[in-house]
Write a structure and sequence with these properties.
The chain has about 280 residues and is of the alpha/beta class. The protein has 10 helices and 8 strands.
Length: about 280
């Protein structure tokens, strides 16, 4: 058995619907999958219904956007199978509200440079829980200003290093977010540790017993980081998960479904952990 535990749909910043995601996950040969849209679990019920239809196991999940205040970097935490998902709603609402406000500021800035309208951009936000840079870029692609979702135009406008229209989002501190994830009875997994240079944070969180696992298998993880992640997983007894970080065509590099996977051993370890958590 193999699974992909990191997938996005148009509920956040992916290009694919929930229905298509589950359908193609089955065609890709996956036995299990997790829908991990940013800061929402609104697609979980639909995904589970479709999973039963197509014969693929669905783990409810979300990717929580946080900030490592000590090191001044963004960080993402994957939350799986929360026992009390309602306890996450306040956290999600806080993040989505901040992202939406930042998105509106970005739209106003983009409109000073390009003759795109807010109504055009909003066509791509329908169904999403917030406004993402991907939505703005899609409207600009329609107008022919670039032909890549993460090409030169994206870098010019939204680069974290001085993008013309990048507007900051206020994210919760990672330690505060993890406390809420634990109170909800969720399995906390540090997502793509090398992507935001979170290897030091990984050791910090693992040493304090605040994460249960780490996303070891990810398309953007290089060999040196991979070795460090495996060493930390061995040292702290972390579950090693994997996922493609699937966004459809809204990505900087091709990451098809099942390009990075979670093994059956890791899935079983997650279920064993859930059983032990339920006994406490």
């Amino acid at each position: 058995m193999i699974g992909d535990l990191h997938c996005h749909t148009y509920l956040s910043d992916g290009s694919m619907s929930i229905d298509d995601l589950i359908f193609y996950a089955k065609r890709a040969g996956l036995d299990f999958i997790s829908l991990t849209d940013h800061d929402t679990m609104d697609g979980a019920q639909r995904a589970e219904v479709l999973g039963r239809r197509y014969g693929i196991q669905v783990l409810p999940g979300a990717e929580v956007s946080c900030f490592d205040n000590e090191r001044g970097r963004k960080v993402h935490i994957l939350c799986y199978m929360p026992e009390k998902p309602d306890r996450l709603q306040g956290l999600f609402a806080q993040i989505l509200d901040s992202r939406t406000k930042a998105g509106k500021r970005s739209i106003r800035a983009v409109m000073r440079y390009y003759p795109v309208t807010e109504e055009h951009i909003q066509r791509y936000t329908l169904g999403s829980k917030s406004i993402y840079k991907a939505h703005i870029i899609r409207a600009l692609l329609d107008l022919g200003y670039d032909c890549q979702s993460h090409g030169p135009l994206y870098e010019q406008l939204f680069s974290s290093n001085g993008g013309l229209c990048e507007r900051p989002v206020e994210y919760p501190d990672v330690f505060d977010a993890l406390q809420i994830i634990h109170s909800a009875g969720g399995i906390a997994v540090l997502a793509h540790p090398s992507f935001y240079d979170s290897l030091e944070l990984m050791a910090d969180l693992a040493g304090k017993g605040l994460i249960h696992g780490v996303e070891a298998y990810h398309p953007n993880t290089g060999k040196d980081a991979f070795d460090a992640i495996l060493a930390a997983a061995e040292k702290y007894g972390l579950i090693k998960t994997g996922g493609s970080d699937f966004h459809g065509f809204l990505t900087s590099r091709p990451n098809p479904l099942a390009s990075s996977i979670t093994t059956e051993d890791s899935l079983n370890a997650m279920y064993q952990l859930k059983k032990s958590m339920a006994k406490k």
